[in-house]
Amino acid sequence: MDQHELAWAAGFFDGEGWAAKQKRGVQARINQADPDGVPAVLLRFQAALGGLGRIGGPTQEPERKDLYRWSVSSRADVELVLQLLKPWLGPVKLLQLSRATGRAVPSVAAAVRDDHWWAWAAGLFDGEGCSSLLHHRSHAGYMTGELSVTQSSLVGSPEVLRRFGLVVGAGHISGPYPQRNATMDVYRWKAAALSDVERVIAELWPWLGEVKRAQAQHVLDVLRSQPALPRGNPAWGNRKTHCVNGHEYATARLRPYVSRGVGTPRRDSHQCLVCLRDYARKQRENKTSTPDEDRRSISEYAQNYLLK
Question: Where do the domains of the chain lie, and which CATH numbers do they carry?
Answer without folding.
Answer: 3-109 (3.10.28.10), 116-225 (3.10.28.10), 240-307 (no CATH)
